[in-house]
Amino acid sequence: MYRIVHKEVLTPVTKLFVIEAPEVARKAQAGQFVMVRVHEKGERIPLTIADYDRQAGTITLIAQEVGKTTHMLGSMAVGESLASFTGPLGRPTEIASYGTVALVGGGLGIAAIYPICRALREAGNEVIGIIGARNADLLFWEDKMRTVTDELIVCTDDGSYARKAVVTVPLKELLDAGRPIRRIWGIGPAIMMKFVSLTSQPYGVPTIVSLNSIMVDGTGMCGACRVSVGGRTQFACVDGPEFDGHQVDWDLLLTRQRIYVDLEKQAMEAYVAAVASQHA
Questions:
Q1: What superfamily does domain 2-89 belong to in CATH?
Q2: pLDDT tens profile 138-153
Q3: What is the pLDDT of residues 13-44, one digit of tens each?
Q4: According to CATH, where is 2.40.30.10 located in the chain?
Q5: How many angstroms separate the CA atoms of 105 and 255, rounded?
Q6: Which terminus in the chain has less CB density within 10 A, N or C?
Q7: CB-based contacts of 200: which residues, under 8 Å, 6+ apart?
């Protein structure tokens, strides 16, 4: 079993978990993910590895409570264990000495870019970070991000904290100013990654995104996470999760992400009702 050894509430809907998983921690690399089950009959959900400690044998995950399973995960306490914890999965980020790089994290994507920023900086790159959220309440890890970047730009959509802007605005400003950015990573909601890619495309800067398509097994067998990249069918779990953002069929990805919206809503409503009845 995979025991929770530490838990933090980062925002009203975002929680951090440090999980005992020594075998996963031994091989984890930036950009990879794990498949998690909260209980034996629960669904498997993919969560990006936000951090790892090989010596302690732990993996750090950050989850936002948006559906039934993430709400169940959020209700778990230190000392409890997850039913399964499979990983590390996916291809790790290609870390090299590129020069100046920019990493854009939107919402939960902040957790995903943190280990990538750290690895790129350790490889000798100048790392520019851009992080943003809808409002101040949803921002987290600003201080940690400053430790792995040479420059950090913080935005909120509503202007409740730092700069009022969506993350593509400072990215475009950097590109317009002629900063020698050699590669861009954009991780966050699919619509944000789409616009990061559209922003960078006219400048010809390679742009990497981490696709959060629907997954079932995470090992390439089910085909649920298929995406179209450069006109070819790829599987996010084994061919990715990182892909060339300029080649992704964003309209198809966004459409497929909405397939189970009604069922997800029904599951959440049933879960809320069940919890309410237990406390009645």
A1: Translation factors (2.40.30.10)
A2: 999 999 999 999 999 9
A3: 999 999 999 999 999 999 999 999 999 988 99
A4: 2-89
A5: 22
A6: C
A7: 171, 175, 184, 207, 245, 246
Residues in contact with 59: Cβ distance below 8 Å, sequence separation at least 6, in sequence order: 18, 19, 21, 24, 25, 28, 34, 49, 51, 52, 85, 87
Q: Which residue has the tokens 């090992």?
A: 219
The dotted CATH code for 100-257 is 3.40.50.80
User: How far, in Å, CA of 238 to CA of 219, rounded?
Assistant: 6
Query: If pLDDT is split at 50, 70 and 90, which confidence band does 266 have?
Result: very high
Lowest mean pLDDT among 56-65, 111-120, 257-266: 257-266
Residues 6 or more apart whose Cβ sits within 8 Å of residue 23: none
CA dist 30 and 50 (Å) reads 8
Residue whose structure tokens are 């909601």: 189
Q: What does the pLDDT look like over 200-222, one tens digit per residue?
A: 999 999 999 999 888 988 888 88
Q: In angstroms, rounded to a whole number, what is the distance separating the alpha carbons of residues 214 and 98?
A: 31
- What pTM was computed for the model? 0.96
CA 31, 54, 18, 33: dihedral to nearest 10 degrees? 20
